[in-house]
Write a structure and sequence with these properties.
There is one protein chain. The protein is built from 3 helices and 6 strands. By secondary structure, it is of the alpha+beta class. A 6-stranded mixed β-sheet has the order 2-1-6-5-4-3, with helices on one face. A hairpin with a 5-residue loop joins β4 and β5. It starts with a helix and ends with a strand.
């Protein structure tokens, strides 16, 4: 009887932890932290990505489409380049993240699919206003160390205005 009690307690703790980890406030806070690390080019900005992460980023601009496809190394190189450009140009940057959906996987709730819409506005002296709207789908899994992003699929459109 005592063993059943402890099994029940462990099952409830496991379920409660997954409910917390994949709750909207906890997930959005964690995603914001990852974004802040990437924008700053901080040490550890790539720690949240699984070794076998699958990356598919597409950006449509007036000059055509650019893409980043591959794995962790490709993504981290892209993030390093982007954060370096932001440090050099020192733009005014405003980012708004909107959670479109958060769907935990079926039992045993070890992953979730997160869909975000991000609207970024970048202002630099002497340059047109740049607005990027991206729709991204992330697959995030629970690990013993915390959360890891295992997949990113993103489409964005960049527009310039004076």
């Amino acid at each position: 009887m005592r063993k059943l009690f402890w099994i029940g307690v462990l099952a409830a703790a496991f379920y409660g932890h997954s409910r917390f980890v994949f709750s909207e406030p906890a997930m959005m806070s964690w995603m914001q932290k990852q974004q802040d690390l990437a924008l700053k080019g901080a040490d550890g900005m790539c720690d949240a990505y699984a070794q076998d992460v699958q990356v598919n980023l597409r950006m449509q601009t007036e000059r055509g489409e650019t893409a980043v496809e591959g794995g962790k190394e490709d993504l981290c190189n892209h993030l390093k380049d982007a954060s370096a450009a932001l440090r050099v140009t020192q733009p005014s940057l405003n980012i708004n993240n909107e959670l479109l959906s958060l769907e935990p996987s079926g039992f045993p709730w070890m992953s979730a699919t997160v869909k975000l819409r991000q609207t970024s506005t970048l202002r630099m002296r002497g340059a047109p206003l740049m607005t990027e709207v991206s729709d991204s789908t992330y697959v995030v899994k629970r690990t013993l160390e915390g959360r890891q992003i295992t997949s990113i699929d993103s489409d964005s459109t960049v527009s310039l205005s004076r």
